[in-house]
TrEMBL record:
One of its GO terms (cellular component) is microvillus. Keywords: Actin-binding, ATP-binding, Motor protein, Myosin, Nucleotide-binding, Repeat. Belongs to the TRAFAC class myosin-kinesin ATPase superfamily. Myosin family. Residues 600-622 are annotated as: Actin-binding. InterPro entries: IQ_motif_EF-hand-BS, Kinesin_motor_dom_sf, Myosin_head_motor_dom-like, Myosin_TH1, MYSc_Myo1, P-loop_NTPase. ATP binds at residues 149-156. GO terms for biological process: actin filament organization; actin filament-based movement; endocytosis. The gene is LOC109884586. The lineage of its organism: Eukaryota, Metazoa, Chordata, Craniata, Vertebrata. Residues 875-1048 form the TH1 domain. It comes from the Eukaryota. It is found in: Cytoplasm, Cell cortex. This is Myosin Ic, paralog a. GO terms for molecular function: actin filament binding; ATP binding; microfilament motor activity. It holds the Pfam family Myosin_TH1.
């Protein structure tokens, strides 16, 4: 019975796991049903295709009527109504500005999208960010994200979210943390100097920005670089009603300290400055200029601006305001002159230029023909020159600011790059100027690049999967790009030619030149060239270009600027922005259009070298209200962003594609052959599944790793079948869950009974152990009390325990060597046994030790024992000789051949260098003492000076000090011997030991403390006196004694 229950429990668990793994959506539904997590339902609706009637499809490619603009906008409206602001067109992300915080940008959301496949989760800006980041790391190819849209569509916020995602999810160190902070802090600085309040957006970017974020091999941000395009400099001097100048002017006036404003000559009132009141909107309720000023100042510090640089930058900002307040009037002779001297004084101080020179530059112009001629400016010309100077100063200061930020972000080593392009979308206003022309020309180039790269990526995917590529028909806007940039015949070439021709350039002559050159072009229309109906919509000073996104009328106009005086500025920033060569050179500068065309060409080249991703931003209404969807405005943006063209290109082939594992995992429950698990090849499993579902051959293709479905209807039919299948799956899930729950309940009850019995058994065992322990303790205590009595039942346990403990201690810790005298104290009853054991142990260790001794070592030890017997506690130098080994000879191979021949069969057993002292005069002479088995000889220069037979050697005398003297006593009546021999040697212990051993005179070694008497002739004696001193000295005394002084190391 238990086995069958366990088997049932395991089978129920396996069914649950299989269902949860195969159908993640079922696990969410079940969780919502069981635990009441209502917020999960919204996620299920987003993650499945079955809720498309309410929330729309999350990929426009799945629209059935994909050619209908109305169906496209209706899908956007449905999703916007459900607060789903992100939708895909394939890999392109379409973002609708919600104008409120949706709380979908937390760190938890970042983690949700981190490392997840692009289509496995609902569309989000984080999905694009993560997909781009992972592609950069895995494919080792630079990436870029192109963000476009109208002002107020959320481009700047999108780029912020991308940077925040990388800053939060990428690995980081202390140094990288600094770079990360600088990357993030560059946003408020650039927004302050490059953003402004417009009718459409309170924080509208008035410049295009391309930022490269550099990553190291670990994927950590290590640097960056920013390129800026087309700053709206005209905003410096003019704003439309309801708009403001750049934020930095208002921030400085509202947030700057009073001392700082006084130094700059400014007042805390924006109404007093001509350049700040033209839009009649100095204050905005949604903008806190004072708080933003603190943010900007902090950001400048984080980025690495020095105080001097910040001061120079603020001087330039203040000088622009003073320029705006510089007024002109007519003098007595009708010449134009400056009427506001105070502002001119501040201008010369803040810009670091000469006051009279600045006055001359603002009221006169220089003409260079056959020499240099200065002519006065009219009132209108002076005002225009002042405004042009203000725009030039601010524009170049902004360029310097971007370069300074790039300096702080610079990284020179090798790195991978993700680029962020935040630039204007296609713009059409009631009056479109040169700036709108540049913006729309940029969008034409980007659209051309987008279509080209989209088709390229589609073709590469088809070829990689082995699917036949079908050519796609699409509108190629190259004809419009050529109309603008073609050499000698394009719009920009004509503009350059008109600006460079002699005389004063005229707007009308430029328009006529356009009509003559471009008159027959299908995408160019003027009032003169248009037919009757179109002529009414085109003004006489306008021309119309038919862009890919629609028709736009442009007004022809131009502007000039005089910047010569600024080249002499002492302001460090201006001196870097304006170069003296610009004034002195005779070469005509490039026109703004040519400069923009060249910079745009470089941008396209940069983008072409990277793998692109796209974010298209749409604003739902002009009133910046959340929840309001203006269909006409959205249709206008869909058209000008080219989204329908993008969708048509994407749908030209197959609408839906998924990897085999994802497709099979989702739909395998629809086929008995693939349910619950497919064991074979994934491709075979998908083929089995689609055959069971009845797919027709023209509806799908099987690639190498993906299935391609041509029509959304086929996918929706499959989704509907899955939705119909889900109740049965849910019933199986609920049945399995209930069975699992009941079986688990039974097992809990059964386990509780078993556990109760087990706990009882454990408690009984524990009680028995405790009783046994108590008995042992009682016996032990009683035995301890009777320990001194004879053995009896009361103490026998204690005495046995004592003996056992003693023997076990002896077994565990026996003596380690013959020198180890440790031995445990035995109990009284084992004293005799302990002595026997100790003796046996020592004998055993000594026997084992002796067996291990080598012959050479044995001989050495025997000699050391003799030395110990003779010298221990007798001679001071003995302790130092104990650790030194005795050697076989101190002479090595220095024996003379003659000496060897003289000795004959007597082998030299030991030799040492000694010093012999004469009997008369004690003259020291070097000798060699050689010991054989029967005699000792003194040798000098291969001659045997004296032979001493061991039988004739009476005794050996040495002192008790550390000197090396020894006296060999021989019989004075022996004619063969001269007299006693006085020798001195560095190894006296070794020499005496070996000599005493060989001569068997161990008992004939005398150790004297004060003096040694020795015979010098028959009946005559001499004395060697020994004394202690700091060092060894040998000298002849007054009484004819030999005096030896030696240091006493071990005084006794």
């Amino acid at each position: 019975m238990p086995f069958s229950l366990n088997a049932s429990l395991r089978s129920g668990r396996s069914v649950l796991c299989a269902l949860f793994l195969c159908f993640p959506c079922l696990s969410l539904v079940f969780a919502s049903f069981t635990f009441g997590f209502v917020h999960q339902v919204h996620r299920v609706m987003e993650s499945t295709l079955t809720a498309r009637d309410r929330v729309g499809v999350q990929d426009f490619v799945l629209l059935e009527n994909y050619t209908s603009e109305a169906a496209f906008i209706e899908n956007l409206r449905r999703r916007f109504g459900e607060k789903l602001i992100y939708t895909y067109i394939g890999s392109v992300l379409v973002s609708v500005n919600p104008y409120k915080d949706l709380e979908i940008y937390s760190k938890a959301h970042m983690e949700r999208y981190r490392g997840v496949s692009f289509y496995e989760i609902s569309p989000h800006i984080y999905a694009v960010s993560d997909n781009t980041y992972r592609a950069m790391r895995t494919e080792r190819r630079d990436q870029c994200i192109l963000i476009s849209g109208e002002s107020g569509a959320g481009k700047t916020e999108a780029s912020k979210k991308i940077l925040q995602y990388y800053a939060t999810t990428c690995p980081v160190t202390d140094h990288m943390s600094t770079i990360r902070d600088r990357l993030l802090q560059s946003n408020p600085v650039l927004e302050a100097f490059g953003n402004a309040k417009t009718l459409r957006n309170d924080n509208s970017s008035r410049f295009g920005k391309y930022m490269d974020v550099q990553f190291d091999f670990r994927g950590a941000p290590i640097g960056g670089h920013i390129l800026n395009y087309l700053l709206e400099k005209s905003r410096v001097v003019h704003q439309n009603h309801g708009e403001r100048n750049f934020h930095i002017f208002y921030q400085l006036l509202e947030g700057g300290e009073q001392d700082q404003l006084s130094k700059l000559g400014l007042e805390r009132n924006a109404q007093k400055y001509h350049y700040l009141v033209k839009g009649c909107c100095p204050r905005v309720s949604s903008i806190n200029d004072k708080s933003d000023w603190k943010t900007v100042r902090k950001a400048l510090t984080v980025i690495g601006f020095h105080e001097e640089e910040v001061e120079d930058l603020l001087n330039i900002i203040a000088s622009v305001l003073h320029l705006g307040n510089t007024q002109f009037g007519e003098g007595e002779d009708g010449e134009t002159q400056i009427t506001t001297e105070s502002h001119l004084t501040y201008l010369s101080k803040l810009l670091g230029v000469d006051g009279p020179a600045l006055r001359e530059a603002l009221t006169h112009k220089k003409l260079t023909a056959k020499g240099e001629e200065v002519s006065p400016l009219s009132f209108e010309q002076a005002v225009a020159a002042r405004d042009a100077l203000a725009k030039a100063v601010y524009g170049r200061a902004f360029t310097w600011l971007v370069a300074k930020i790039n300096q702080s972000l610079a990284f020179k080593g090798s790195s991978s790059v993700i680029g962020l392009l935040d630039i204007y979308g296609f713009e059409v206003f009631q009056h479109n100027s040169f700036e709108q022309f540049c913006i729309n020309y940029c969008n034409e180039k980007l659209q051309q690049l987008f279509i080209k790269l989209t088709l390229k990526s589609e073709q590469e995917e088809y070829e990689a999967e082995g699917i036949t590529w079908e050519p796609v028909k699409y509108f190629d806007n190259k004809i419009i790009c050529d109309l603008v940039e073609e050499k000698h015949k394009g719009f920009i070439s004509i503009l350059d030619e008109e600006c460079l021709r002699p005389g004063e350039p005229s707007d009308i002559s430029f328009l006529e030149k356009l009509e003559d050159t471009l008159g027959g072009h299908a995408h160019f229309v003027t009032h003169k060239l248009a037919n009757g109906k179109t002529r009414k919509a085109v003004g006489r000073e306008e021309f119309r270009l038919i862009h890919y996104a629609g028709e736009v009328n442009y007004t022809v106009n131009g502007e000039l600027a005089n910047q010569s005086v600024i080249c002499q500025s002492d302001n460090q920033i201006l001196s870097q922005c304006f170069h003296r060569e610009e004034v002195t050179t005779q070469k005509r500068p490039e026109t703004a259009a040519t400069q923009f065309k060249n910079s745009l060409a470089k941008l396209i080249e940069i983008l072409m070298s990277k793998e692109p991703s796209y974010v298209r931003c749409i604003k739902p209404n002009d009133a910046k209200q959340s929840g309001r969807f203006d269909e006409a405005l959205v249709r206008h943006q869909v058209k000008y962003l080219g989204l329908m063209e993008n969708l048509r290109v994407r749908r030209a082939g197959f609408a839906y594609r998924r990897r085999y594992e994802a497709f099979l995992q989702r739909y395998k429950s629809l086929c008995p052959g693939t349910w619950p698990n497919w064991q074979g090849r994934l491709a075979d499993g998908v083929a089995t599944l689609v055959q069971h579902l009845g797919y027709k051959a023209e509806e799908y293709k099987l690639g190498k790793t993906k299935i391609f479905i041509r029509f959304p209807k086929t996918l929706f039919t499959t989704e509907d079948a899955l939705e119909a299948r889900r109740p049965a799956l849910a019933l199986t899930l609920q049945t399995s869950w209930r069975g699992y729950r009941e079986r688990a309940k039974y097992h809990r009850i059964r386990n509780a009974v078993i556990q109760s019995a087990w706990r009882g058994m454990k408690s009984r065992r524990k009680a028995r152990r405790r009783r046994h322990a108590a008995e042992i303790i009682r016996k032990f205590i009683k035995g301890f009390i009777y320990r001194h009595y004879e053995r009896c039942p009361e103490n026998e346990y204690f005495l046995d325990h004592q003996r056992f403990s003693f023997l076990m201690t002896l077994v565990r810790n026996p003596p380690k060597s013959v020198l180890d005298k440790s031995w445990p104290v035995p109990p009284p009853s084992l004293t005799e046994a302990s002595e026997h054991l100790c003796r046996l142990c020592m004998q055993n260790m000594m026997r084992a030790y002796c067996r291990r001794i080598q012959p050479e070592w044995k001989k050495q030890m025997e000699q050391k024992v003799v030395a110990s017997q003779i010298f221990q506690d007798q001679k001071d130098s003995y302790p130092q000789s104990v650790p030194k080994l005795f050697v076989a000879s101190r002479l090595g191979r220095e024996f003379n051949l003659k000496v060897i021949q003289t000795l004959g069969n007597d082998k030299v057993k030991y030799g040492v260098a000694v010093t012999k002292y004469d009997r008369r005069g004690y003259k020291a002479r070097p000798r060699q003492l050689l010991l054989t088995s029967s005699f000792a000889v003194l040798v000098a220069e291969a001659k045997l000076k004296q032979r001493i037979d061991y039988t004739a050697l009476r005794s050996i005398s040495v002192s008790s000090l550390t000197d090396g003297f020894m006296v060999l006593h021989v019989p004075s009546e022996d004619n063969k011997q001269k007299s006693d021999v006085v020798l001195q040697c560095d190894h006296v212990i070794e020499v005496v030991t070996k000599l005493a051993t060989m001569a068997d005179k161990k008992n004939k070694v005398n150790i004297s403390q004060d003096s040694i008497k020795f015979a010098v002739a028959r009946g005559k004696e001499a004395v060697i006196d020994f004394t202690s001193g700091p060092e060894l000295k040998v000298a002849k005394g007054k009484k004819g004694h030999l005096l030896v002084t030696a240091p006493q190391l071990n005084p006794r």
